[in-house]
Amino acid sequence: MSLALKLALAPLLLAQALQTRRRMPRLPEAAGPRRGRVGDGPGRLGLLIVGDSSAAGVGVASQDDALAGCLSRALAQRLGRAVQWQLCARSGITSAQAGGLLADADAADVAVVVTGVNDVVDRIRPAAALAARGQLVQALVQRTGVRQVVMTPVPPMHRFAGLPQPLRWVAGRDAAAHQRALARWAQGQPGVSQLRPALPLDDPAMLARDGFHPAAPLYRLWGDALADHIAAVIGTGP
User: Fold this and answer.
1) pLDDT on residue 42
2) Is residue 70 within 8 Å of 36, Cβ to Cβ?
């Protein structure tokens, strides 16, 4: 988008952003334990989920129905072994703030990083967001010993029903720029991969009542897609 167009739209976008914050329901993070063990079999996989409100399960009542519960169960089924999981997440954080969640993180084999939306909302440039992700990967390796980090995509925000136009269109363009940069960056990072699912965000049943966060069906699809990706990357053996 041209700078002139952004400047022309700036007053309207600011007004829409403020109005959206006022009217959008403030949904809580999902309740329940933020660490646990599921599955059985030979060996154990340590799974750490780090991220923002979607990682924290905003949109559903329980962590059982959120990403942590859906992913850990699906991964245990695919690997045929136990998954020891932990969630370090907080609503509103950017990629640069995610490292601050690792103070109490356990040792893990695989980490899933869910950030990006707040980078777009806070108008952080893609290059700065990528630098923050690089620092986060280093922190994950140093503090938890992870061997594989999976980055989830920056979601297509032009499909978020909770955002009005043209704010939705502008956010979508910015999110797409972040995602393109993330995809290129992840390809060149050892031990880093990126999930690239096509999740049905156009279906209202997939979104929570704020039109912004996932609902239970979308968390299940997301967890399944991540479990397939992780199993393919690390293999299914103990």
Assistant:
1) 81
2) no
Q: Where exactly are the structural domains of the chain?
A: 40-234
Q: Are 48 and 105 in contact (CB under 8 A)?
A: yes
Q: In degrees to the nearest 10, what's the CA dihedral of 210, 213, 219, 222?
A: 140
Residue found under tokens 């409100």: 53
- Give me the DSSP letters along the chain: --HHHHHHHHHHHHHHHHHHHHHS--PPPPBS-SEEEE--SSSEEEEEEEESTTTTTTTSSBTTTSHHHHHHHHHHHHHTSEEEEEEEE-TT--HHHHGGGGGGPPP-SEEEEE--HHHHHTT--HHHHHHHHHHHHHHHHHHH--SEEEEPPPP-GGG-TTSPTTHHHHHHHHHHHHHHHHHHHHHTSTTEEE------TTSGGGB-TTSSSB-HHHHHHHHHHHHHHHHHHH-S--
Tokens of 231: 């199993």
Q: Is the pLDDT of residue 8 over 80?
A: no
pTM of the full structure: 0.90
| Cα angle, residue 31 at apex, residues 50 and 200 outer, rounded to 5° | 65
Is 190 a residue whose pLDDT tops 90?
Answer: yes
Gyration radius (Cα) of the chain, Å = 18
Task: Give the CA dihedral 72, 31, 102, 108, nearest 10 degrees.
Answer: -20
Largest CA distance in the chain: 60
- Return the number of other C-beta atoms located less than 10 Å from residue 200's C-beta: 13
- Domain 40-234 CATH class label: alpha beta
- Each residue of 59-76: b (16+ CB within 10 Å) or e? bbeebbbbbbbbbbbbbb
